[in-house]
Amino acid sequence: MAKPTLPSGAPRVVVVGNGGHSRSCVDACSDETLGLLVGCTGSRDGEHGELRYLGTDAVLPRLLAEGTATHAFVAIGSNSLRQRLTASVTELGYQMASIVSPTAQVSRTATVGAGAAVLHGAVVGAFATVGEGAIINTGSSIDHDCIVGDFAHIGPGSHLAGGAIVSSGAFLGVGVSVIPGVTIGAGAVIGAGAVVIRDVPAGTVAVGIPARNIRKAQPE
Ligand SMILES: CC(=O)SCCNC(=O)CCNC(=O)[C@H](O)C(C)(C)COP(=O)(O)OP(=O)(O)OC[C@H]1O[C@@H](n2cnc3c(N)ncnc32)[C@H](O)[C@@H]1OP(=O)(O)O
């Protein structure tokens, strides 16, 4: 990626993770909103496609100490791993960057937490809240007054109607619809294409139309 000219005080951001979700996040970055992307860490050497690979996560303390990076963005699709790595890089002393695609629409009355990603074409409605480290994936929408908890993931093309709540660490697969006012519990998993019309308990897998609880979610 060509290095833009930025003010000397601009955030210097290392992207933690170099898999598919990382590629989507970097594609949704703009230099104006994020700062200078200095490269990525991860386990798959040289496979990011866009960012310079800086090594495994073991290089993170050095990057911070030498001033190569000031901020981190954890670009990992797994909710639990993203949460653990966020805790680790925060402990190291990194500030957390968040990503909002220039093609996303975020209401001026909405809040987007540190470390969150709002990807291409997503819509975050009036007075909605996106928690820390949450993912609002490509083409999804969360309408007015929705709450998406910390480290939750709203999958591509999923839609939350007004006032719906997706609790911390929950995952909605691609193309899920949630009717107004429903609460999805912490760590719940909602299968692709489901239509959720009633509350889903924490730690439960629910699938289908209407969504039915099929089992307990396994720890990731
Ligand atoms: C950018 C990105 O790519 S973001 C990532 C987006 N990822 C996704 O959308 C993945 C969403 N994942 C799913 O939908 C998965 O099927 C899960 C998590 C719901 C369940 O996965 P598993 O635990 O492996 O379930 P498994 O495949 O064993 O299926 C269990 C049962 O549920 C059914 N089932 C599974 N998923 C669904 C679904 N989405 N809708 C309806 N029924 C389903 C299966 O047919 C099966 O039924 P049966 O017992 O009658 O045969």
UniProtKB/TrEMBL annotation:
CDD domains: LbH_AT_putative (cd03360)
Alphabetized PROSITE patterns for the sequence: HEXAPEP_TRANSFERASES (PS00101)
First and last residue of the signal peptide: none
Residues annotated as binding acetyl-CoA: 153
InterPro entries: AcTrfase_PglD-like, Hexapep, Hexapep_transf_CS, PglD_N, Trans_hexapeptide_repeat, Trimer_LpxA-like_sf
Residues annotated for substrate binding in this entry: 77
Molecular function via GO: transferase activity
Keywords from the UniProt entry: Repeat, Transferase
Origin: domain of life: Bacteria
Limits of the PglD N-terminal domain: 12-87
Active site: 144 (proton acceptor)
Site (Increases basicity of active site His): 145
Full protein name: Hexapeptide transferase
